[in-house]
Design goal:
2 copies of one chain form a homodimer. The first copy, chain A, is α+β, with helices and mostly antiparallel strands and 335 residues long. Chain A has 2 domains: 7-141, PurM-like, N-terminal domain (60s Ribosomal Protein L30, Chain: A); 158-323, Alpha-Beta Complex (Phosphoribosyl-aminoimidazole Synthetase, Chain A, domain 2). Helices cover 33% and strands 24% of the residues of chain A. Chain A contains 10 helices and 13 strands. In chain A, the strands form 3 sheets. A 7-stranded mixed sheet of chain A has the order 8-10-7-11-9-12-13, sandwiched between helices.
Chain lengths: 335, 335
């Protein structure tokens, strides 16, 4: 099981790990294209997952690479309140890849796909110097509403979050600096980076409120609150050509809402734990805004949902009374 | 215009080249996912287009890279007889990429997208050591038929092709061995490799025959006839669990149907022009099979459609009376 790859081997292993029929598909893998039944509106999203950019083999197991490549896409479905249905996988594999590695990679991805009953419907295979993964996922909207999209909130609305903030970034920094050996001492942080939990169920429940008069706005947090929150707080371009406006927020993060490992890391590094939580990238939490009267209903429906603050007229972001220095993340300059 | 990239620059250029609304979309780029209207069934397909695997910067202009990355996906829509509607673009860019290069890349892709009224609906952006492109495309089926898929033919059916065979492979070999300077002496071959023509119109016309009692089977030729034809000639897995069967073909390629540049190249290299035509990869021609009584109707409807031979019970492929040595192409071993 440690010999190298052939195309036939890759396809035969793939066929073994991934079923090829699904209620949403008229035609699965093996033809020029898969055919999706027209039923409800489809949300569609694509993400790259690249070696040494988004993950390192030195501290990711092959199962975790397969898992996370799909999880980050599932998170986009969660943010639209969509039920994931299927995905395509473009896979560039170094020719020296071992068969056992591939088995493990597929098993990690297939287990997560099975958990959400999401079918691998097609894709492409190529040799590539570094491992290169591109997933396109689609899901059906629950009802016809588009109202979970960003930009619908206004001053006075409440902000909320489902999932942990800053934890995955602590995990990344621990793994980068100290390697996988350090993981047992930081179990939650490393797990948050290696196996992020897509908030599919919460997204579906929140989408049940999309028909409210003032429906919530929701997005997933992939670049950290400091960078993603302003995207939620920007108004949509109006039909009448109104200029886009940027609102701000006043956030309240009591220390007990920040994960103990984030607090421990901040203490160890002499950093502010609130800032650490808000800068954290790859949280894959859901971030939302809703009219004040909706918050209590949302909390009852989604027990993990926590209030984060309030939308303000002023475009700054204030966290626990202090302005947040929003470090920009640029994929080309921040590296 | 020769400075390096920032993420904001890439997104602003993209916004300038690609429109963000389309009759098929309820929501375009800029949110967690695009939303496609449920209307007709959707064909969906994904392809990788990787530097030094699928193209080289040394002889592709940036416009041609943008063009071809989309064209190979459009070809999959042609093979299903689907009208292309939209696509996502995952783009891994080396940080040293120049702004002018990116403008040209987008302009090449946007021009082709505009030609087929196909919208860029989303995607992802990352730094990457080598240029890495993954496109997922979708289109609507014309009618509800799935009958253009592979595997529906039987012995006695006629084979046909729309597009040139072997020409793109000659172009590849000329460009690899002699560089772009050689292109003027081999204009059709180099164009076939650099700017393949997706057979969208032919695919749509042929799909008009999908409701026939014995509808045609169609696929696109990306790995060459020698490798792709057996895929067309394999029967589908039966509902009753019948074993999959492999038919063969007797092909007839009169010399005058082989492009003069393929014949010239074969003469120059002391090769058999028929074999060269049938081994050719990246033709992006449509290859099909139909009942004998349908061929004349298809030829009237698609003037470029040419007969290629007949399906046989015996699983071998015979070309002009001689067995074709089917060289296998393996993405991992053939390189």
């Amino acid at each position: 099981m440690n010999s190298l790859l052939s195309e036939d081997f890759v396809l035969s292993r793939l066929a073994r790990h991934f079923p090829n029929s699904h209620a949403s598909l008229l035609l699965g893998r093996g033809d020029d294209a898969a055919v999706i039944k027209a039923d409800k509106h489809l949300c569609v999203s694509s993400d790259l997952f690249l070696e040494d950019v988004h993950f390192r083999r030195s501290y990711f197991t092959p199962q975790e690479i397969g898992y996370k490549a799909l999880a980050v896409n599932l998170s986009d479905m969660a943010a639209c309140g969509a039920k994931p249905l299927g995905f395509t996988l473009c896979l560039g594999l170094p020719p020296r890849t071992e068969q056992m590695w591939l088995e493990d990679f597929f098993s990690g991805m297939a287990a997560l796909a099975g958990q959400y009953d999401t079918i691998l419907a097609g894709g492409d295979l190529s040799a590539c110097e570094h491992l290169c993964i591109a997933v396109t996922i689609w899901g059906e909207t629950v009802g016809d509403s588009l109202d979970l999209r960003r930009g619908g909130c206004k001053p006075g609305d409440f902000l909320f979050v489902v999932g942990r903030l800053g934890l995955a970034r602590v995990g990344l920094r621990i793994l980068e600096a100290r390697g996988r050996e350090a993981a047992p001492a930081w179990p939650a942080a490393c797990a948050a980076h290696l196996r992020p939990l897509p908030q599919i169920e919460a997204g579906l429940v929140i989408s049940g409120f999309a028909d409210a008069e003032n429906p919530p706005s929701v997005m997933d947090v992939s670049d950290g609150i400091a960078r993603d929150l302003p995207r939620l707080l920007q108004t949509r371009e109006g039909q009448g050509g109104e200029p886009v406006r940027q609102f701000g927020a006043s956030l309240r993060l009591p220390p007990e809402t920040i994960h103990p490992e984030v607090r421990r890391f901040a203490l160890e590094q002499e950093l502010d734990p609130v800032t650490e939580a808000l800068l954290g990238g790859e949280d894959y939490a859901l971030l939302g805004a809703c009219a004040p009267d909706l918050l209590a209903k949302l909390r009852r429906a989604v027990p993990d949902l926590r209030p984060l603050g309030v939308v303000t007229e002023q475009p700054d972001i204030i966290a626990n009374g202090k302005p947040l220095k929003a470090e920009g993340f640029d994929h080309f300059t921040t590296g």
